[in-house]
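>> Question from a student workshop board

For tomorrow's exercise we were told to take the sequence and the ligand below, predict the bound structure, and bring the output to class. My setup keeps failing. Could a helper post the expected result so I can at least see what it should look like? The ligand is S-adenosylmethionine.
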Amino acid sequence: MPVWDPNLYLKYADERARPAADLIAQIHLEAPARIVDLGCGPGNSTEQLRRRWPNAAITGVDNSPEMLAQAKAKHPEWQWVLGDIETWNPEPAVDLIFSNAAFHWVAGHATLFRGMINGVAAGGALAVQMPNNFHSPAHSVMREAALSGDPRWAKATVAVPNTLTVHPPAFYYDVLRKHASRVDIWETEYQQVMDGPRAVFDWIRSTSMRPYLDRLPDVEQRQLFEELCLEGIQEAYRPNDQGKVLFPYRRMFIVAYR
Ligand SMILES: C[S@@+](CC[C@H](N)C(=O)[O-])C[C@H]1O[C@@H](n2cnc3c(N)ncnc32)[C@H](O)[C@@H]1O
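>> Workshop helper replied:
Here is what the output should look like for this input. Compare the format with yours to find the bug.
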């Protein structure tokens, strides 16, 4: 399980908030009584859910104590639970199971999505957003750094983590349609304007680089890995005359109704 740094994650809070807002805008539920935000992180997505449905009972669930501490500090009166998405069991059935940018950390999506949609109460919905950006240069750079024979890197090869999994839309449609009255799936590629390649590096360092860094035993190796990634990012994302970089970011959205 990667160790999360809530402050680094929140550095791009606006860019990270938009997909959750876009997902919430497409959830056609009047007044869900019980909502669960799985992988709630520091509580930003939970805040958006609270704004949309102020009277709902909302529980934020996350397996990172650091992220939950941040969420609790902001909203001590809300319900936060330390728990794992993989083993989480809705009891009783909830009206909205919501997850923004977390399910891609969990393997076994057929079982996961089947379990989730069956955990939704009649008339409720499962709403999920996952990054689907794993073929971008940013990810290639990390894979190449992990497998590279760079002399500074020496023998400390890093196994490429395999938990960041997102399948094609048809996969989710097939799994969900048997248990849902309606399934709505779409993808959006956000064209994020970043303050240069360093900002792209910081973005991935706070999320998808965590599993690589966590596999490296000492600080020196982690620093080397980061250096290699930064070099690759600088190569792949060239700044324009104002120092800005366009960082395309594709995300998949799923809303399935019971
Ligand atoms: C990218 S953050 C998203 C946070 C929040 N939903 C938002 O929209 O800002 C991903 C979160 O998923 C959590 N997470 C990852 N794998 C998890 C798991 N198996 N069980 C529970 N939480 C998990 C991480 O701890 C992290 O807080």
